Amino acid sequence: MDNKLIITICASEESFGAYSENCEGIYAAGDTVADTKADVLEAIRLIKENLPEERWPEIIKGKYTIEWHYDVQSLLQYYQGIFTNAALERLTGINQKQLWNYANGVSKPRPAARQKIQNALHSLGAELMALSL
């Protein structure tokens, strides 16, 4: 079984950052989520290039997969060009102004709101995966 490297991506006012939840020493940053993901891969490459294998974190010694976690602000910012707040309101039932506040760091969603957003996106994803053209 593959090891799962969990990376959390967070938004700030001007950029994105990332860190591993279960592997010490993996940190990254970038202007976009794509840049940040690339920087995570570069951090792993640098660990493997600059440290002897016996000092590598155990999780990256063999096969592993990366599971990307997002905070709500970075998720909403990342998908802003794909989902309008009006579309997200229809999917989640959360008011557009509140979604704007989450995306811009004005307020943070409570656990129930985070779950609503996640459930709505997973439901949309499942629906899209089930269709054929």
Secondary structure blueprint with pairings:
Blueprint (H helix, E strand, L loop, with lengths): L2 E9 L4 E5 L6 E4 L2 H18 L13 E7 L1 H7 L6 H8 L3 H8 L7 H20 L3
Parallel strand pairs: 1-4
Antiparallel strand pairs: 1-2, 2-3
Written overview of the protein:
This protein starts with a strand and ends with a helix. The radius of gyration is 17 Å and the shape is elongated. With about 130 residues, the protein is an alpha+beta fold. It has a four-stranded mixed sheet. α3 (about 85-90) packs across α4 (about 95-105). A hairpin with a 4-residue loop joins β1 and β2. It contains five helices and four strands.
Q: How is the largest sheet built, in terms of strand order? A: 3-2-1-4
**What's the end-to-end separation, in Å?**
35 Å
Helix content: 40-55%
Low-confidence stretches: none
Please tally the helical runs, counting DSSP H or I stretches of 4 or more residues.
5
Report the strand count: 4
Strand portion, in percent? 15-25%
SSE string: EEEHEHHHH
- Molecular shape: elongated
Q: Gyration radius, to the nearest Å? A: 17 Å
Secondary-structure content class: alpha+beta
Averaged pLDDT? 93
Main sheet summary: 4 strands, mixed
Quick structural gist:
46% of the residues lie in helices and 19% in strands. It is of the alpha+beta class. Strand 1 (3-11) and strand 2 (16-20) form a beta hairpin.
